[in-house]
Amino acid sequence: MIGANDAKLLLAAALAASLPLGVATGCDAHAPVSVRTEQFPRPPYSGATYAIYERGGAVVCTTLEVCNKFDQCDTSHHAGPFKDPVDEDTGEPYGTSPAVRIPPEGLRDHACLVRFAIADD
Q: Span of the secretion signal (predicted)?
């Protein structure tokens, strides 16, 4: 049986899920979008690169690209912050890049922003 508090939490989660990502995360939908990267080793001879997209100080989506030594890569996109458990176990990234602002006309060039309708804000 669901209690009153459980019902309120379910309703709040359903409402948040129905909102555009920028509204659901509480960030300004008109703030500039920036991207930064983090790199992690993946044995043997592989690596993982995260492209972390931020707007108004909040992570709006994350792209993970894992490539092997033959440069064969798998890419996945995730709403909000994401880190694979393998990389969480590694700890700190071995490489990072500073955040770079993406001009509004370039937002549609980033699959993660398009997939989660951030490029349309």
A: 1-23
Domain count, the chain: 1
Lateral strand order in the sheet of 95-102: 73-79, 58-67, 46-55, 33-42, 95-102
Q: Give strand ranges (E) for the chain.
A: 33-42, 46-55, 58-67, 73-79, 95-102
Give pLDDT tens digits for 89-107: 999 999 999 999 999 999 9
Place of tokens 């509004």: 104
Phi, psi of 45 (to 5 degrees): 60, 35
Reported pTM: 0.76
Residue 77 placed within a domain: yes
Residue 117 has pLDDT above 80, yes or no: yes
Q: What CA–CA distance (Å, rounded) separates 93 from 48?
A: 10
Residue 120 lies in a domain: no
How many residues comprise the chain? 121
Return the SS3 of 51.
strand
Q: Identify whether 121 is part of a domain.
A: no
